[in-house]
Structures are given as C-alpha cells and as structure tokens.
Hints:
Helix content is 30%, strand content 24%. The chain is built from 10 helices and 18 strands. α1 runs parallel beside α5 (141-154), α1 (5-16) packs parallel to α9 (345-361) and α2 (51-69) packs across α9. The two termini are 25 Å apart.
Amino acid sequence: IGSGIIGASCAYFLARNGMRVHVLEAQSTVCAGTSRACDGLVLVWDKPLDATFKFAQFSANLWRELADELPIPFDYAQPGCLVIAESNEAFEQAKMLSQRMHQLGEACQMVEGQDLRAFAPHLSHDVRGAIYLPSEAQVEPRKATVALLRGAMEYGAHISIDAPALDFQLRNSRIVAVRTPRGNLSCSAVVIAAGVWTPILLTKLGMPSLPLRPRKGHVLVLERTYNIAPCPMLEVSYTSAVQSCNSNSTDDDGAQIAFVLEPTVEQTVLLGSSRQFVGMNMDVDLRIAQAIASRAVRFVPTLSSQLLLRIYVGLRPWTPDGMPIISPFDDVDGIYIATGHEGSGICMAPATGWLIAKMMQGDELPDYAKAFTINRFIN
C-alpha cells in the first residue's frame, strides 16, 4: 500500500524474488506524496552511529547496483558532497566528523583555504573549511520511484491508482484481503508503506496509536545558469536539525533551518532544509521559504541572482528515536510496516525493500534489523 519511494522499492524486491505483487495507490498518480517533494541525496555521513548507519551504507551500495539493474535511468550520480563548517567551532565539529568517517571506512578529505576556494569558488570566502566525502550520491526521486515500479512490473507486478485501501479482511488473525473501491483484493500479505498516513491504516487493524508524526519540509527549486557548486553541499550542523525535535533554530516558531544545496542533472538547484511539526498542513509558508533562501545566500552569495521556479512541501514520517519502522505487525499475520524514515527515505529505500522481502520469505536477517521493529513502540 503506497507507491512512493519506499512502497516502490518493496514492490520491486518482492517481485524480483518471485512474489505476485499488487501496488495500491490512493491518488491518481504514483509518487504523489513526499517522494515527489524532496531532494534526492543518498547520504551516509549524517546518520547516527546506530543501526541506521550500517543500514544506510548498505542501501547506498544497493542504489549503485540498481543504477545498472533497473530498466530506465533515474539520474543516479556519485559526485560526493561537501560538508561545510561556517565557524571555528563548526570546523572542530567537522574534524571530529572526518575522524569518525575514516574509522568507519568512509573516504573523506578536509578542505580549507585556497583549496576550498578552488574546489567551490562560489562558496562564501569567510567559510572556515569543509569536508569532502567522495562516496555520497544522488538520484532523482520521482524518476527513481518510477524506475523501481517499472522494474517491479517487468517481474509481473500490477499497479492500481485511485485505489485507496479502505479496510482489511482478517480470518483467524491473518490478513486475507484488502477492501478497495473496486472490491476486495485477496492476498496473503500486505506491506503498509504509506508514510505519514500509515497510523490511519493501522487503526483499522486494531493498533490504537503509533508515535509517528508528520514533519513538514520545504524545498526551493531554482534555475541554474552557471556551475554553482561541484557537488551537493550541506552545513555540518544539518545533523543537529535532523536529530532535534523542536526549537533552537533560526526561525521564530520552532522550525529547524539548515543549509542544503543540491545541483541536479536537470540544471536546477534544490535548496533546503526546513523541519516543522505542524500536523498535516501542506501549505507553502513563504516565511520559511525566505529563511531557507537567506541561509543559502549566506553560504553561496551568488544564489541571489538565480530565479526561484517553484516550492515543494512534503511531510516526512518522523519517529521519536529517529529510526525507521521496518517490521512485521505481530498482532496480524501477514502485515508488514515500512515507514518512519524521516528525511532518509530516498537513501534507505533500496535496503528497506530488500529487508521487507527477506522478512516475508523468512530468511535470516542482519542484526541491525532488530532495531527497526514496531514492537519498540507497542511495548
């Protein structure tokens, strides 16, 4: 259930493993939710040192394989990324990050002074320094979602749009069908990959509450009339914004603002990032957009000459411990959950689909999979 990047990945890996797959999408087009309103960064460096780090590393490797495996291209590239330290204090934080990456086997290089100016000439000259991580990658999220769905279809999967899951039919605590506007769809298993809408579906299965909240984010899309940056760029404090729950931001209503810039293959520039807890509100907030733009111009002053084309808004599925939920739902046999990736859904999508397929087949799972169980919230 769900045809965003997570649902598409689950469909692909399940179909590739020989299962009969039917994707249900409530909207009139696939990839209609958060996956169409986000950047395409495949980052490992920003993950905390828990199960998510190994999971992200594995998923980044899967993206590299999928670039050759999927039937249509999705703008996969591996330009690396530049993690920027604005001040002396941030530079010390960057040094510690560099040491950690080396210890974890991730290539990285400290860049400062004239070397930094030569590598990123449009970066503000008062920036203290940066880390270059050559292994970081990017995809185009909508194209990647469609490529995964197309790959699933080549393995026999079916896709239905305008087909919301209205209810579930159980027999002896086991799923046997999903009710849709077109009738009941018989099944032996269901993967709920509906992002922030997942808790609504789980209530139909008897789960009263799941501590998963929508975390609103804005993405600004700018024209790119010159080579603004050699690779995606983020400020080192981006991780603090991701891992925080509220406040301590540059915005006065508790929104977290951190500089993120992604040059795309389509000759645009994506700017972020913002994080807010405002319920299911999907309205563009021009004040937040202005805060993102101001933060970006502070790091790359020449951005002020670029035309703003559009603004996207998406709702990231947030969990209290910052880890996704990739798990069977023990109360009902045959129900699996795949959500809660917050801003890492693009990065972790392939590994999520791979892991769901392993779970459904009863295969041995990696140790880190235990951290993603839904039981950590139920119990």
